[in-house]
Design a protein that fits this description.
alpha+beta; five-stranded mixed sheet; 10 strands; 26% strand; elongated
């Protein structure tokens, strides 16, 4: 429909489906309410000689306009459970996901890739400022941190949005479905330089991503860091 950025992740379609469902429901309700409002405004407009009368409402109408929204909310919630668990449950992160550390600070994003020693947090790690390089067709898990205030890691084309909170590590995963360059933004007002806090997501083919890792002096290929981390006690 063109109202949302072009979808570029595996779970974008399910999120978009829920979005358009909510848009359709609220759109129909909005049109119906406005139509009734206009009808009442015309039907019950002031007329000379017409007396007003008091009413205590209609129980049947009140039950209907309470029950229908309740059913719709429950329906939307039920339809949202499966996509939510697939995206947000810690157990949903694929075991072969390639892990990248992402540190937010005023006003930049720093993506860190494990170095040749296979251990994150050592001197041979590779850090990219305001650039997130990932492979297409393979899951990636981003470990979010913040050095100062609350930031929000926002990848609109991938339908990814997760706050980065000081003192906490947040994991968010996704899988790109097409190569190219996409937007990386902060969706949280984080200070006077908030509007400058942007970057790019560069999605490579699998071979190009491995070549990029090698050229940058980064470490093992896809999945190695996460696999090694799960072996630790």
């Amino acid at each position: 429909m063109g109202w949302l950025p072009e979808a570029a992740s595996t779970f974008a379609d399910s999120i978009d489906g829920i979005f358009y469902l909510i848009l359709a429901i609220t759109g129909v309700i909005f049109i119906a309410v406005e139509a009734v409002l206009l009808w009442f405004a015309v039907k019950y407009r002031h007329r000379d000689g017409r007396k007003a009368y008091h009413t205590h409402g209609n129980i049947r109408v009140e039950v209907v306009w309470t029950a229908v929204p309740a059913v719709l909310v429950v329906l939307i919630g039920v339809l949202s459970v499966r996509p939510w668990l697939h995206i947000r449950s810690p157990d949903s992160i694929p075991p072969d996901a390639y892990a990248i550390d992402m540190t937010a600070k005023q006003f930049e994003w720093n993506a860190t890739y494990v170095g040749p020693d296979g251990a994150m947090g050592t001197d041979d790690d590779v850090t990219q400022r305001n650039q997130l390089h990932i492979p297409v067709g393979r899951p990636v898990v981003v470990m979010l941190r913040s050095e100062d205030v609350i930031h929000s890691f926002f990848l609109p084309e991938f339908r990814v949005k997760q706050d980065a909170v000081p003192g906490m590590e947040m994991a968010v995963w996704f899988q790109a479905t097409r190569t190219g360059e996409f937007n990386l933004a902060c969706a949280e007002l984080c200070g006077t330089g908030h509007t400058r806090m942007g970057g790019r997501v560069i999605v490579h083919s699998a071979d190009d991503f491995d070549a990029w890792l090698l050229a940058e002096g980064a470490g093992p290929p896809l999945g190695a860091r996460l696999a090694s981390s799960t072996d630790q006690p």
